[in-house]
Specification:
Layout (H helix, E strand, L loop, with lengths): L4 H31 L16 H4 L5 H32 L2 H12 L6 H12 L4 H7 L11 H26 L2 H9 L4 H29 L3 H6 L7 H11 L3 H38 L1
Amino acid sequence: MTMRPRYRTALFLAPAGAWFLAMLVLPLLVVIVYSFGERGPAGGYAPAFTLDNYLNLGSRWTAFRNTLTMAPLGTLACLVIAYPLAWFLAMRADARWRTLLLVLVIVPFWTSILIRSYAWIFLLGGQGIPSLLNALGLGNPRLINTPFAVLVGIVYGYLPLMVFPIYVSLERLDKRLLEAADDLGSPPMRRFLQIALPLSMPGVATGCMLVFILLMGEFLIPAMLGGGKVFFVGNALVDLFLQSRNWAFGSAVAAALVLVMLITVTAYMRFTRRWAGGRDDVALM
């Protein structure tokens, strides 16, 4: 007896579906239920139904503002640095050295982000780069515990996640298209804007989403390099769940963060799809 295709497909998807349900959907439902509750007398959660937690989200506006500012800015900074690097690796690097260069890009991931953040604390602290600039007569700027320090940590920590998706898209790009455009007299910038960039947009979109989504929940880099002065939503959640033990309000903050991420990611993906489609239309003209 032959199994029908739709049943066979459902059977193959069942393990992934069960994992998705158990690890994502159910915890999210628990968070949503908790968000309508109250803080227990000794902390934690007490069953109730109230909207006070959502009405009080304004008290965490600074954390949301910092997150919604630094996450896009950090994503853009990673993109600006990663695209030329990925272009060099895919288009210019000698094939004999390409694997080694790719390994060097991912080497930072071999070390804990905690240790790497401590290294940046030393580099940006008073005995690091500011001391060197002072010795050169360029002043003694304060770099640690600033938004700049957090941005540096973000770029250093998340750059590989941006490089590899773009590299894969560029590596798969048919270079004969660029050669044909060159033979037809198209200038380099036009070849890049009308051929290379639209065809690499899937990698750009993937890299931006990977970095942006992770940054929206980041808490370690702001805590260590921001010194408590650059407060993200992730830091607010750590405080609410682990210190003040206000699980109900923390769940409301988490639910609001998920909603903001869904809206932002959906808008970005639609914009990217339309932009890429528009560039393809221009390229065909």
